[in-house]
Every structure is written in structure tokens, then in C-alpha cells.
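re: ur question from yesterday

yeah so i grabbed the chain u mentioned. its 364 aa long if i counted rite. heres the sequnce exactly as i have it in my notes:
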Amino acid sequence: MSQPTSSLSKLALQKFKRNFWGVFSFVFIVIIGLISIFAYILAPDNSQHANQMHLAIHSQKPGFTVDMLVIPESKKSEQALMNKLFFGYQNSDTEIPVAEHVLENNQLTYTEYAADNLKGLTKTIDLSIYAENSTKPFVEERTFMFGTDKYGRDLLSRVLVGARISFFIGFIAVFISLVVGILMGSLAGYFGGKVDAVIMWIINVSWSIPTLLLVIAITLALGKGFWQVFIAVGLTMWVEVARVVRGQVISVKEMQYVTAARALGFNDYRIITKHILPNIMAPVIVISAANFAAAILIESGLSFLGIGAQPPMSSWGAMIKDHYNYIILGKPYLALIPGFCIMSLVMAFMLMGNALRDALDVRS
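ran it thru and got these C-alpha cells back, copy pasting raw so excuse formatting
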């Protein structure tokens, strides 16, 4: 009677499922990924980059509530549904915080909100000219769950939209580092000799340059922007992958199954891609999880220095840069909230990486 057998991948999956923090981190990362994709659906401010400013209510505490006068946009251009989903609404309504308002015969008299116990201006508008463009109440109560930033923008919306950069930079940077690192490491480890010497020289030169300094140099060469940061971070993270892949290939290329593949006349490309790489991917997967966390931290540092994602694009690092001085002004939450988001996402990737390392360790 034959005993049921399980593949190594199934055994690794079972070990991973038994790790509470690994599973918890994986679920957390998936939730953050869904939030980043559908940020404009979840965000109270669904304008592009969540950039609706209300200077009268700047730097308000979490849970702040105010009446908001919403004046519909008179001319709204057509915008595709997918464009709204991924890039927000291009034409947003005009919003004015009000302290008091009175409606009589389509005439709305309101007093603008003013902080520090000041008296705002009193104005009157005719709502009949906007009635055709809106089916919603013109004055609605608005609650800012995370408060507002120094420009009066909804901090919760900025955090949700900013999750996109921190999350997707991990995927793109790790993808670039895997493509370059696996290619260079495989060539160096498999062929050896002069090929190995040249590639190792490139690796050592790249390794000797501080990561942040190299990223800054690449960013300045490519220009400031969204995609430039992704490429710059990815091109600085391939070295560690290449070193790991090179070491693994050197230890595996003399195994019997590789020798048998050579004896059967398979070419080098097939031996590397079909026989060697599938058997050395466990440490590469683990290092990729760590590189996710490193990419998020590097992007946050670049945004803090002002050479990452550019305004008005929302980024957790840029939010810390804009509000770190508020820590000593009695409003530390403006910097602590995005800082906690960075910390929690990085910790989730590190915990998942540790869980993957334990699950893929054949000795355990």
C-alpha cells in the first residue's frame, strides 16, 4: 500500500500556513494591495491625487467635522470609468467649509469657516443656477477621520492614494532587480572564468557605492518623477540578487542532474533556465521579500529628500517631509500616521520573508 506523498512546494506551503505572523503579514499585504488599487473608490476625496485643498481648515485633528458647501462643476468633461478608478476625477466640485448657512428661496447665505475663533466672510449665492448639475444637498457634513494636512487636504485620502507608490514601487523595483540580478548571477556562476571576473567587478563596484547615493545619481540622470524613481530603485537592488544567484549556481552546476543534462546535449540556456534556476529559487524568493521592504524605505527616503514622487502626487515619504516640523508644534499625527503606515508595511514584508525562509528551509 503506497503512502501519500507531498511535493516540496506543498510541504513548504503547509509550514508557511502554520506560521501565524507569516500568514497575518501576507493577508495584511494583500489588503494594502487592494486598498492601493481601489484607493479612489475608498478615499473620501476622489479628486486626482486627493488634492482638494481647504486652507481654512488646515492642520485639523483627527475626527474633525465641518459643514461643507459643495458647488457643482458647471462644465464636466466626459471621463472613462477606468480612468476615474485609477486616476481619480479630473473635474472636482468646488468645496467651501462654512461655519453657518441659511437657505431661503434658493438663496444660500453662508459664513465661511475661519480658524482661531475668527469671523469668516458672509456671502450669498443663487443655487438655482446649479440645480441642474447636482442632485445632492449643497451643504453636507464632512468628517475628516485622520484630520487635515497643512493645506487642508483630507489626510485619510492622501494616505490611501499614497499607498500606491509605496506598494507598487516594491513590485516594480523587485521585478527589475530579479531580471538583472538573475541574468548576471546565472552567467557569472555558470560560465565562470573571465565572465565571472567581469561580472563580479561590476557587482563589487556597484556594491561599494552607497545605495541612496546611487539612487540619487540615477534619479538625477533620468529626471525627477514617478517612473524614474521606480527604475532607479530597481537598478540599485540587483547586486544582492546577483550575488545570491551566483553562489547558488556555483554549488548546483556540478550536481548529477546538471551533468546528465549536459550529456544529453542540452544547450546552456536550457540547462540554466530549466534545470538550475528552478532549484535555486528558494533563497531568491526570500531575498525578494526583503527587497520589497528595502524598496519602500528607499522611496520614502527619496520622497523625504524631495527627489521622489513630485507634488501634487501623494507619497508617504513626502507627507512626512511636509509635516515633520509639526511634531514639535503639537500636531505630531500629521507625520506619525504616514510614518506608521511605512513601518507597518515594511514590517509585514520582513515578517513574511522570515516565514518564507523557515518554510523553504529543507533542514527544518
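noticed a couple things. Residues 206 and 239 are 7 Å apart (CA to CA). also Residues 155-191 form the longest helix (37 residues).
anyway ttyl
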